[in-house]
Structure formats: C-alpha cells, structure tokens
Amino acid sequence: MLPLLALLLLLWDTDPARASINEEKILGGQACIPFSQPWQAALFVSQRFHCGGVLLSDRWVLTAAHCAHWNLQVVLGKHNLRRLELSKQIARVKQQILHPNYNSRTKNNDLLLLYLQKPVKLTPQVKPIQIAKDCANPGTSCLVSGWGSVSSPYVSYPAVLQCLTIKIFSDEDCRKAYPDVTFPGMVCAGTYESGEDTCQGDSGGPLVCNGVLEGLVSWGMEHCGLTKYPGVYTRLCHYRTWILNEMKKP
Predict the structure, then answer these.
(1) DSSP string, 108-168
(2) Over residues 204-226, mean pLDDT
C-alpha cells in the first residue's frame, strides 16, 4: 500500500511543459519590487525556465534536489524573464552536489548545490544571502518569490518575479495537513487565505525570514492554494553545516 503522502500529493514536477498541476508556483502574490530579491536565481534547461534557485556566494547557487538536470544554466539579475535587462548574468554549472540522503519519493533532504564555472559579478541586482543560523519560530512572517504559475490547476507563467508574504506554521499544524512530513528537515509555510500559495515552477526558490534564507520551495498539494494545505519547504537551518562544509571543498 502506498504511503499516505504518495496518495495525497503529487510532488512538484519541474518541467512547465508537462502535467498542468505538478509544480510549485506563486499563487495570489504580486509583482516583486524590481530587483528587491537580488539573490533570486532562475534555472534554465535548453533556454526553457525550469526552477528557482538562490545565490549563496559569487560561486554557489542552492536549489531543490528535484530540480537537478544535466544541462542546467543559471540566470541572475533578472526581474522580467521576457525582456532584455542589462543586469542579467548567465552562469554555467561546473558541478552539482546532491544531498547524499535525498529521497526522490518523499522529497526528504530536497536540496542541491550548484558550483558555477566562474564567479559571477556581485552588483546591486546580484547579491548573495546568508542561510539562517536558527530556525524561525511559528508565526514568523516570511517572503517567498518565484516565476512559477499564477493560476491553478491550469498553469500560467508570469513574466515578472512574483512575491508573497506567508507565515511559518507550527510542526503540529503542518502534521495535521501532512501526517507523513519529515521533521526537522521540512517546514510548512503559507497563509490561511484560499488561493495564496507557491506552486508550479517555484521549486528551489527562496523563503526569506528576517532577512536570511530560511527555506527552499519543495512540494505541496497537486492543486495549489488550498486553505488547509500550506506549502512545504526544505528547512535550511537544519542543513546549514552541511551546506557550508560543501562550499569549502572545491
């Protein structure tokens, strides 16, 4: 018998051309102030938008493990994906470091480090963000951003980066929605308003709380924006030591 998680959820797919309800997006958000999230990365495969990501230094980008692809390309300094912007920087990936305990079925340990071929130039539009040292408390207000779909179940991808303010849920409330969620590596966040959520295309994008990186968009219900089912994020305070140690190796 399949686990409850597999029965309830359709874990976020990362190809916008595939099934209409499988990925993370920002639903019910609004356009970000241009370049207000300078750590936001867009990952492309063969010139097609694939996932979100987060700049940790001039040589490292963090994303979700389920966004892994042999042909990833990182784009930074973007607000509108459909317009020419002089702040844009394109970086090739030299090495992909998957968390050794990543489980593709449950999405446990859903994180992937990308080591860039060359350092990117840090500018006002391209800046790294620090990983949270301590886990944010339930009720903490946070910001999630991405270029994921703005409708569900039928996808519609925006041109400009979308932002949404959400709150950290308690483990108890998260477990009520998803009994099989694995703590402490995952955390739920969302609002109690229907139609406000992350969804298709936002996977790997940043959840920022108190000015530091708290999480990565990971998975949720197949139909985005359901009131009692918040998005689930990889909780990075739990992985900070592993991430920093890996960044020292190359």
Answers:
(1) BT--EEEEESSPPPPBTTB---PBPSSPPPTT-EEEEEE---SSSSS----SB-EEEEEEE
(2) 90
- Annotate 186-228 with DSSP letters as a single string: EEEEE-SSTT-B--TT-TT-EEEETTEEEEEEEE--SSTT-TT
Q: Which two tokens stand for residue 124?
A: 């006002």
Which residues, in sequence order, are CB contacts of 82 under 8 Å at separation 6+?
A: 159
pLDDT grade, residue 221 (50/70/90)? confident
Give catalytic residues, as residue numbers. Answer: 66, 110, 203
* C-beta of residue 250 within 8 angstroms of C-beta of residue 95: yes
Rounded CA-CA distance 21/27 in Å is 12
pLDDT band (50, 70, 90) for residue 194:
low
Q: What is the DSSP letter of 173?
A: H
* Residue in 108, 126, 131 with CA at minimum distance from that of residue 185: 108
- Alpha carbons 92 and 15: distance in angstroms, whole number: 19
Query: 229, 192, 189, 228: which is closest to 205 by C-alpha?
Result: 189
Query: What would the two tokens of residue 16 be?
Result: 């916008």
pTM: 0.88
For 30, the token pair is 């609004």
Run of H or E including 176: helix 171-177
* Per-residue pLDDT at 2: 31
Q: Decide: helix, strand or coil at residue 92.
A: strand
Cβ of 103: how many Cβ atoms within 10 Å?
12
Question: Beta 72-76 vs 30-31: how paired, if at all?
Answer: unpaired
Residue 60 vs residue 201, higher pLDDT: 60
Structure token digits, residue 194 = 């229907």
